[in-house]
C-alpha cells in the first residue's frame, strides 16, 4: 500500500489521521484561513486604490468645463495611470471600445494618442 505523506497547509508538518485532513489542528486551520482572508482584503484594497487613482488622473486631465481631451499616451503613463485597471468597457455603434474607470473613460487612438472622456 502506498502511503502519501500529507503536510499541513499552514505549518507544513506531516498530518496524521483522515485522508482529507489539510491541517494539523483547528489552530493551524484558523491561522491559515485568516491569512487567506487578509491577503484577499489587501488585494481588493490595492485594486480599488488603483481604480480610484486612474479615475482621478482622467478627471484632472480634462480641462474645466470640457467633456473630453486628447493626450499622448506617455503623458497618461507619466501621470501614473495604470492601463491594467478599469471598471468596465463600452463599445459605441462605430465599434470604438472605451475603457472606463467609473465615470471617466478613455479610447485608444492611432499613434499612441488617447481620447479621455467624461461620462458616456
Ligand atoms: Zn499545522
Protein architecture, described:
With 120 residues, this protein is of the alpha+beta class. It has a domain at 39-118. Helix content is 35%, strand content 21%. It contains 2 helices and 5 strands; from the N terminus they run H-E-H-E-E-E-E. The protein has helices spanning 26-61, 73-78; strands at residues 68-72, 88-91, 97-101, 104-108, 113-118. It has a 5-stranded antiparallel sheet with strand order 1-5-4-3-2. The protein is elongated and about 70 Å long. The termini are far apart. Bound molecules: zinc ion. Residues 8, 10-11, 13, 23-24, 28 line the site of zinc ion.
Q: What percent of residues adopt helix (DSSP H or I)? A: 25-40%
Measure the end-to-end span: 65 Å
- The ordered string of helix (H) and strand (E) elements is HEHEEEE
Unreliable segments of 5+ consecutive residues: none
Quaternary structure type: single chain
Q: Give the strand order, joined by hyphens, for the main sheet.
A: 1-5-4-3-2
% residues in beta strands: 15-25%
Major sheet size, sense and barrel closure: 5 strands, antiparallel
Amino acid at each position: 500500500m502506498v502511503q502519501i505523506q500529507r503536510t499541513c497547509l499552514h505549518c507544513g508538518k506531516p498530518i496524521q489521521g483522515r485522508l482529507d485532513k489539510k491541517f494539523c489542528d483547528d489552530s493551524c486551520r484558523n491561522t491559515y484561513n485568516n491569512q487567506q482572508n487578509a491577503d484577499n482584503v489587501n488585494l481588493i484594497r490595492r485594486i480599488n486604490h488603483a481604480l480610484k487613482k486612474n479615475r482621478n488622473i482622467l478627471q484632472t486631465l480634462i480641462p474645466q468645463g470640457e467633456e473630453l481631451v486628447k493626450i499622448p499616451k506617455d503623458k497618461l503613463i507619466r501621470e501614473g495611470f495604470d492601463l491594467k485597471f478599469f471598471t468596465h468597457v463600452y463599445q459605441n455603434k462605430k465599434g470604438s471600445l472605451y475603457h472606463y474607470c467609473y465615470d471617466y473613460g478613455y479610447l485608444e487612438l492611432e499613434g499612441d494618442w488617447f481620447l479621455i472622456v467624461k461620462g458616456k
